[in-house]
Amino acid sequence: MGKTFKLLGIGVVAVTLSLEGISWLLRCLRDGRGRPVKEVLFFPTTVTCINHLFLPGPCSCSLPHGDSTPFTRLLRHLLSARSSLDLCIFAFSSQELCRVVLELHRQHGVSVRVVTDKDYMMISGSQIGALRKAGISVRHELGGFHMHHKFAVVDKKLLITGSLNWTHQAVQGNKENVLVTEDSGFVRPFLQEFEKLWDANDPARSPTLSDFIML
Amino acid sequence: MGKTFKLLGIGVVAVTLSLEGISWLLRCLRDGRGRPVKEVLFFPTTVTCINHLFLPGPCSCSLPHGDSTPFTRLLRHLLSARSSLDLCIFAFSSQELCRVVLELHRQHGVSVRVVTDKDYMMISGSQIGALRKAGISVRHELGGFHMHHKFAVVDKKLLITGSLNWTHQAVQGNKENVLVTEDSGFVRPFLQEFEKLWDANDPARSPTLSDFIML
Question: Which one of A114, A119, A181, B103 counts the least CB within 10 Å of its CB?
Answer without folding.
Answer: A119
